[in-house]
Design brief:
- With 174 residues, the chain is an all-alpha fold.
- Helices cover 69% and strands 0% of the residues.
Length: 174
């Protein structure tokens, strides 16, 4: 998404996702798991990472539909002056994608280590932070004219559901 091309968002998003996952994920979020996940989430040769992406744990899946059009990138590479900005944008996006998915991947790995099935671990990972794909028809329409409406709705919904489920645990993790 376009937000991944914004370095300010990339830097500030991971701590937000980390805090959300710590309060929302069933078993919280261990920092050692997050550090390992940050290194492993970009390695698609790792069977566990590949299963995470193929199972839908990362947003955009294995082949992200949110990436810029291949035609646009190919055209920009034919004009040498445009190569530098494209490479910078690709680097910023790669860092953004890695930080965006590292928290979810850490939750996924932690859930597998606790004996959950692949499907249950994917579900926990998607719900540990904001699941941008989860929205109703009205929110889908309004999200097109009110920036980040769905992110706000999902974020508040996740926090309220976690606090309601176990208020003591939720407060301890914040």
């Amino acid at each position: 998404s376009a937000t991944r091309l914004n370095p300010a968002w990339t830097i500030s998003n991971m701590p937000r996702d980390e805090q959300s996952a710590a309060g929302i994920a069933e078993e919280g979020l261990g920092r050692q798991n997050l550090a390992r996940a940050m290194n492993e989430v970009a390695n698609l040769n790792n069977p566990q990472t590949r299963a995470f992406f193929e199972g839908g744990g990362a947003f955009g899946g294995l082949i992200s539909a949110e990436r810029p059009s291949r035609d646009i990138l190919a055209a920009s590479r034919r004009a040498p002056i445009l190569n530098y900005p494209v490479k910078v944008a690709e680097t910023v996006e790669a860092i953004g994608a890695r930080t965006e998915n590292a928290v979810r991947f850490a939750v996924y790995k932690q859930a597998l280590e606790q004996g959950l099935t692949h499907e249950a671990a994917i579900f926990q990972a998607r719900n540990a932070t904001v699941d941008f794909a989860k929205m109703g028809t009205l929110t889908g329409v309004l999200n097109q004219v009110i920036p980040f409406l769905n992110a706000r709705v999902q974020g508040v919904s996740n926090i309220l559901a976690s606090a309601e489920k176990d208020p003591t645990r939720f407060v301890k993790r914040q």
